Amino acid sequence: MLKKWNEKWFKRWSIRREKGQLHYVLSQTAITVFFLIIGLFLHTLLYSNQSKWDVFLPNTAKYALFWFVMGLIVNYFGWIFAEIRYQDVINKQQEENGNH
Fold it and tell me: What domain of life does the native source organism fall in (predicted)?
């Protein structure tokens, strides 16, 4: 039998995978980039003087593009690893049901 945490993960992943790989990768990447930009904004706001704003705005686009590309790569592999885990769980369930 699956552990409680694995059961929750399995249900969540079943719902996510129905939406598709592209939806997962893009949405996770967008969320990550959004919070990284907010963090960069807060860092500039709290830990620098006003003269840094002229540097913040042009660099934000560069950072966002870099993080977006990196996020696509990382989340693509995240999808692959989660799918492998999902298939392992399905195989274990089938083995348990087949043995009983």
Answer: Bacteria
Long-range contacts of 41-48 (CB under 8 A, 24+ apart): none
Q: DSSP class of residue 48?
A: S
Per residue in 8-44, pLDDT tens?
A: 888 999 999 999 999 999 999 999 999 998 988 888 7
How many whole angstroms from its chain centre is CA 2? 24
Tell me which DSSP letter residue 55 carries: H
Q: Please report whether residue 63 resides in a domain.
A: yes
Give dist(CA 89, CA 2) in Å, integer: 8
Helix (H/G/I), strand (E/B), else coil: 9 = helix
